[in-house]
Fold this protein.
Amino acid sequence: MDLEELNQSAVSAAKRLRVDDAVAISANSADSMIRFANNSVTVVNRVEEAELTVYLAKDKRRAIASTSNLSAGAVKKFVGDLFASMRGLPESEYVPLPDEAVKYSASRLSYDKRLEDVDKELPGLAKTAIDSALASGGKRSAGVINAGKATVAILTSAGTRGSDSHTAITLNIRSFAEKEASGHGLSCSSSLDGFDPEEAGRRAGEAAKGMKEASEPEAGKYEVLLSPAVASNVIETVAGAASAFSVDAGTSYLVDKLGKQVAAPSFSLTDHGVVEGGLGGRVFDDEGVATRSNKIIEGGLLRSYLHNLTTARKWKTKSTGSAGFVTPHSWNLEVGKGDSSHDEMIMEMKKGIVLTSNWYTRFANYRTGEFSTVPRDGAYLVQNGKVVKSLKGMRAGDDLQRLFSSVRLLSKKREWIQWWEVDTPTLCPWILADGVTITRAYG
């Protein structure tokens, strides 16, 4: 079955069971992958997947489940079993889905037909990244390129229907000049035109070369210049804290801060359901509500939480088109740009550290926003506007509100970021913040 037939089969089965509401969301994807190590391609693969997720509501009881067994008989049994499982569930705070049928058309804002079948080009793109890293100082490189398309279709018991598709290509490359001298580069885009493996390789190679004589820093407070990759990792947690579900659960540092100053006046954060160049999102959310652009933070003020129908009723507002079946979430994040160049930001630093990559961001306290993260693959000490040496063996820590309230400069240039440390595609500048705590990782 195609996606529309799959959804129709699931919703028809649900209606025969006399549910109050039903939603079927089917998705398929085709993803091509090439992996390389020690400057050579090691794996080439293509994976096609399909999945059906069904939401049912009956007598204030709700159930959600997914399946990849998509034959007609299996779908009917799946819906029946899901309905039967609801009998033992307690009643929940139930908000009916919209009863007006809406038909959605695909946005096509983030779709490049060339990425539907890009397998033959991947080896050349990988070679470009590897060669660029070698020319820039890396001796051996490893990484992966993923490229493909995804389509999602929806049908509700009220008749809301539609589908949307997007394409994406992402590269992560890690280069080594010595055993402990490494650098990281990435490039991601919704189109081949925006993909730059040469630049990603150059960054990885240069960082690896620059880390040859890295040493541990002195612990203390520093100005910190966050690359788009590092900043996006932290900003994604801000968007998570803006979910009304997190606020209601008491696990957000943004509790009771709507309309209040939570960041520097220069900092703004917007979530887009669909946006040109975005690597994710769609025109409808999981409840069949139209997605839109939501200003989360504007001029440093917290303007909005992200809502689904249930949280919107509790807060006496409207859904922001951010519904997952369980929690509201962001789709494509955009940080407002500044007016500085990268070099100008370096020159503004008196005693600071440049961070180009980070791993293992962890929270000590979600309620206060206290977190720490491990800088990797290219970190540099800056004194009086000049990079003086490379650094390793450290951890950066702060709380989210203090960090973003101390933002001093943002770069004009922004980059789309998505990789294993950043799930939500984020258009992000370089960010210079003051007073970040740096501790030594050892001793």
Q: What stands out?
A: The first helix runs from residue 3 to 16. The chain has a mean pLDDT of 96. The first strand starts at residue 21 and ends at 37.
